[in-house]
């Protein structure tokens, strides 16, 4: 009899029947006994973990890392990337692509809005805590998977765990649907950008009636910026049920949007990288300029004081944690498959641990910069509105004095018009008590904190808020151009990331398409443009709200949860860390194993369940324009919109159980063929011109060293224990 160690050595040298997606089967008519003699299948009983997870890696400490690295240096040359795959021209372009996808439009407006309404400084504390304990490990996970496998989302998760191979297809579908409506956001920004080359700005005043000197009465009942948005840009209907044809000027703007995206993507990473120098670096420069300019405004300090004031009760609020988690994942973008796709074009030796931190820090920097800018602007607007309130009260007092209602000693000082903020309070306190009691019933209560809340509530649509901001600065035309260049650039860089999540999996699944990158890019952009036209109809913005507010979060959470579980508990977090140590040639902190195995799944599951309950119990509503009263009103989505929402959620998640059943049927078929006396000979499936077989996340010689470490330490635990 052979010893146990000899059996283990021999088992490492023979083919392993480990994963249904890693091999093709060639069926011949040979008896099962001959199959056993051929040593392809041993008669030793194997557990389920051994059948489908034959390599067990345990990364317990930095000492284990050192032993693995020693094995790499002595035994195993580093694996080179396939030469037929395109790559980024340099590391800077790669990082720009990752940062550009991560920093989107929600970073600029939604983050400051949530910060104000969810505890100010407390929100920032929770966000940064979740960013570094959950966000960074998940970014690292997706980047490392794409970098190691050199494939998009579809191929990566089939290899890591074929049981959840459908996750890649779900990510692909999410990218397609999000790309349809996200391109419309960029089209809106482009339309505003073109309209900004006018003086005065078209949204700064109400339009005149045709053949008349009177202003449009519908506009006079609301703000000119709000009227311009609903009536001139969207040509919005009063309800979602009222459809219509695509709006012409938005259709043209959308066509230009997709043309820019197509040109940026048409040559693959080479052309995309050059565009990213503008679309990613320019927004940071503009944000910095806007920040400096906003800090010079009167009242900016009041806005910043409210930003830094942490509300302790918010730290214990489940709703605040849920909203913070939603913002983190929707802003950074794990689950789309774009980080995986972008990383697949970088050499395997790239330090993806540092990249994850860089992307997270730059995302946080953009969020904080935008927040300081918005709070400074809103502090200025609140101060202005409060001073206007003081002056209105002074005018009311003067009128009542002239009418004989109030005594002459109540007359406000003339200096109030030069410095209302300081003079008003002094004047009011100096009035005799009897006069003050007579004056106060006729005056409005002016409260700067209330004014700040009013301006932060603002219009229901973020882009209208930005048109309001342009009026704050002198030279509003110049600043309008700057702001909408910022929004258009952010939209473009995010769309490039989304398109990478679509094009890369297609090229990996159908390798022949890699020879026709130009045709593939055009072939994707044209139907995407046609599909986006539904969102530029008169009721199209209501569909955008439906998808962005109620649909996108659930599939993304579901995807990220399964990715985390597949890597940490099915493939094995220890094995994955061992593979990365081998790939990078440097030690990696074992803390990632604990985060992947325990903290991240727990946080993601809580967020998923709380979001699901929130959507189930909440009536889904949208902000609509009511032309009869010239104001925004909240309406309830009709029942068919709810059905549409459920159908979209099911369709996007459906590939996951479907592929699981497909894999299960394949495994059952293999087992039944063995029992029926038919030989199943497994051969590696070569892809393209690569001399290697399907790239599995394991290196056998180094694995022997890891197993030797385990045997010495007596470790026989599960992958995450």
From TrEMBL:
<dbReference type="InterPro" id="IPR037272">
    <property type="entry name" value="SNS_sf"/>
</dbReference>
<feature type="binding site">
    <location>
        <position position="331"/>
    </location>
    <ligand>
        <name>Na(+)</name>
    </ligand>
</feature>
<dbReference type="GO" id="GO:0005886">
    <property type="term" value="C:plasma membrane"/>
</dbReference>
<dbReference type="GO" id="GO:0035725">
    <property type="term" value="P:sodium ion transmembrane transport"/>
</dbReference>
<feature type="transmembrane region" description="Helical">
    <location>
        <begin position="358"/>
        <end position="378"/>
    </location>
</feature>
<feature type="transmembrane region" description="Helical">
    <location>
        <begin position="550"/>
        <end position="573"/>
    </location>
</feature>
<dbReference type="GO" id="GO:0046872">
    <property type="term" value="F:metal ion binding"/>
</dbReference>
<feature type="transmembrane region" description="Helical">
    <location>
        <begin position="594"/>
        <end position="617"/>
    </location>
</feature>
<keyword id="KW-1133">Transmembrane helix</keyword>
<keyword id="KW-0769">Symport</keyword>
<feature type="transmembrane region" description="Helical">
    <location>
        <begin position="519"/>
        <end position="544"/>
    </location>
</feature>
<feature type="binding site">
    <location>
        <position position="363"/>
    </location>
    <ligand>
        <name>Na(+)</name>
    </ligand>
</feature>
<feature type="transmembrane region" description="Helical">
    <location>
        <begin position="275"/>
        <end position="296"/>
    </location>
</feature>
<feature type="transmembrane region" description="Helical">
    <location>
        <begin position="247"/>
        <end position="266"/>
    </location>
</feature>
<protein>
    <recommendedName>
        <fullName>Transporter</fullName>
    </recommendedName>
</protein>
<feature type="binding site">
    <location>
        <position position="100"/>
    </location>
    <ligand>
        <name>Na(+)</name>
    </ligand>
</feature>
<feature type="region of interest" description="Disordered">
    <location>
        <begin position="685"/>
        <end position="721"/>
    </location>
</feature>
<feature type="transmembrane region" description="Helical">
    <location>
        <begin position="94"/>
        <end position="112"/>
    </location>
</feature>
<dbReference type="GO" id="GO:0015293">
    <property type="term" value="F:symporter activity"/>
</dbReference>
<dbReference type="InterPro" id="IPR000175">
    <property type="entry name" value="Na/ntran_symport"/>
</dbReference>
<feature type="region of interest" description="Disordered">
    <location>
        <begin position="1"/>
        <end position="24"/>
    </location>
</feature>
<feature type="transmembrane region" description="Helical">
    <location>
        <begin position="478"/>
        <end position="498"/>
    </location>
</feature>
<feature type="binding site">
    <location>
        <position position="490"/>
    </location>
    <ligand>
        <name>Na(+)</name>
    </ligand>
</feature>
<comment type="similarity">
    <text>Belongs to the sodium:neurotransmitter symporter (SNF) (TC 2.A.22) family.</text>
</comment>
<feature type="transmembrane region" description="Helical">
    <location>
        <begin position="643"/>
        <end position="665"/>
    </location>
</feature>
<keyword id="KW-0812">Transmembrane</keyword>
<feature type="binding site">
    <location>
        <position position="103"/>
    </location>
    <ligand>
        <name>Na(+)</name>
    </ligand>
</feature>
<feature type="transmembrane region" description="Helical">
    <location>
        <begin position="328"/>
        <end position="346"/>
    </location>
</feature>
<keyword id="KW-0479">Metal-binding</keyword>
<keyword id="KW-0813">Transport</keyword>
<keyword id="KW-0915">Sodium</keyword>
<dbReference type="GO" id="GO:0006865">
    <property type="term" value="P:amino acid transport"/>
</dbReference>
<feature type="transmembrane region" description="Helical">
    <location>
        <begin position="166"/>
        <end position="194"/>
    </location>
</feature>
<dbReference type="Pfam" id="PF00209">
    <property type="entry name" value="SNF"/>
</dbReference>
<feature type="transmembrane region" description="Helical">
    <location>
        <begin position="124"/>
        <end position="145"/>
    </location>
</feature>
<keyword id="KW-0472">Membrane</keyword>
């Amino acid at each position: 009899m052979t010893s146990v160690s000899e059996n283990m050595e021999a088992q490492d040298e023979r083919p392993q029947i480990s994963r249904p997606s890693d091999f093709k089967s060639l069926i011949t008519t040979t008896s099962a006994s001959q199959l056993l003699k051929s040593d392809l299948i041993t008669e030793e009983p194997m557990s389920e973990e051994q059948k489908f997870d034959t390599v067990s890696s345990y990364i317990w400490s930095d000492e284990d890392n050192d032993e693995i690295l020693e094995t790499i240096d002595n035994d195993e040359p580093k694996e080179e990337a396939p030469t037929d795959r395109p790559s980024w021209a340099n590391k800077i372009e790669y990082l720009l692509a990752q940062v550009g996808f991560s920093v989107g439009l929600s970073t600029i407006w939604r983050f400051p809005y949530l910060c104000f309404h969810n505890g100010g400084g407390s929100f920032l504390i929770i966000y940064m805590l979740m960013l570094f304990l959950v966000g960074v490990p998940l970014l690292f996970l997706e980047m490392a998977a794409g970098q190691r496998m050199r494939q998009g989302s579809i191929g990566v998760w089939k290899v890591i765990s074929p049981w959840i191979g459908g996750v890649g297809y779900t990510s692909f579908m999410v990218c397609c649907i999000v790309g349809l409506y996200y391109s419309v956001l960029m089209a809106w920004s482009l339309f505003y950008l073109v309209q900004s080359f006018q003086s005065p700005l078209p949204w700064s005043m109400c339009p005149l009636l045709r053949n008349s000197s009177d202003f449009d009465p519908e506009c006079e009942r609301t703000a000119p910026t709000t009227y311009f948005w609903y009536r001139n840009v969207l040509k919005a209907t009063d309800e979602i049920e009222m459809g219509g044809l695509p709006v012409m000027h938005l259709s043209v703007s959308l066509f230009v949007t997709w043309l820019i995206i197509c040109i940026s993507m048409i040559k693959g990473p080479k052309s995309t990288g050059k565009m990213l120098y503008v679309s990613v670096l320019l927004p940071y420069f503009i944000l910095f300029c806007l920040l400096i300019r906003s800090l010079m405004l009167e009242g900016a300090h009041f806005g910043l004081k409210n930003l830094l004031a942490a509300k302790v009760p918010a730290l214990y609020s489940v709703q605040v944690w849920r909203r913070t988690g939603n913002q983190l994942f929707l802003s950074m973008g794990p689950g789309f498959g774009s980080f995986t796709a972008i990383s697949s074009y970088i050499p395997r030796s790239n330090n993806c641990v540092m990249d994850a931190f860089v992307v997270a820090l730059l995302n946080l920097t953009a969020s904080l910069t935008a927040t300081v800018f918005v709070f400074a602007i809103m502090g200025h607007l609140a101060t202005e509105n409060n001073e206007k309130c003081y002056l209105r009260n002074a005018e009311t007092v003067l009128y009542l004095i002239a009418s004989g209602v109030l005594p002459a000693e109540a007359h406000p000082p003339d200096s109030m018009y030069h410095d209302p903020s300081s003079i008003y309070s002094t004047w009011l306190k100096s009035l005799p008590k009897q006069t003050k009691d007579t004056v106060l019933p006729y005056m409005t209560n002016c409260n700067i904190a209330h004014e700040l809340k009013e301006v932060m509530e603002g219009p229901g649509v973020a882009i209208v808020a930005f048109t309001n901001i342009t009026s704050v600065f002198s030279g509003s035309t110049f600043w309008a151009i700057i702001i909408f260049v910022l929004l258009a650039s952010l939209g473009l860089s995010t769309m490039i990331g989304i398109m990478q999540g679509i094009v890369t999996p297609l090229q990996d699944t159908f390798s022949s398409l890699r020879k026709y990158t130009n045709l593939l890019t055009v072939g994707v952009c044209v139907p995407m443009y046609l599909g986006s036209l539904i969102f530029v109809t008169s009721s199209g913005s209501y569909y955008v709200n439906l998808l962005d507010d109620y649909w996108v979060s659930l599939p993304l959470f579901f995807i990220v949860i399964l990715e985390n579980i597949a890597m940490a508990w099915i493939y094995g977090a220890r094995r994955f860390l061992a593979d990365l140590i081998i790939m990078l040639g440097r030690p990696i902190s074992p803390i990632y194993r604990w985060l992947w195995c325990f903290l991240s799944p727990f946080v993601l599951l809580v967020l998923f369940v709380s979001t699901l309950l929130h959507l189930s119990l909440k009536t889904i509503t949208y902000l609509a324009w009511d032309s009869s009263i010239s104001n925004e009103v909240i309406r309830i989505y009709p029942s068919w919109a709810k059905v549409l929402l459920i159908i979209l959620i099911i369709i996007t998640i459906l590939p996951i159980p479907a592929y699981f059943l497909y894999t299960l049927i394949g495994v059952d078929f293999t087992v039944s063929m063995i029992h029926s006396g038919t030989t199943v000979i497994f051969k590696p499936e070569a892809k393209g011109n690569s001399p290697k077989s399907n790239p599995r996340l394991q290196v056998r010689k180094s694995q022997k060293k890891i197993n030797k470490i385990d045997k010495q330490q007596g470790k026989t635990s599960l992958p995450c224990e």
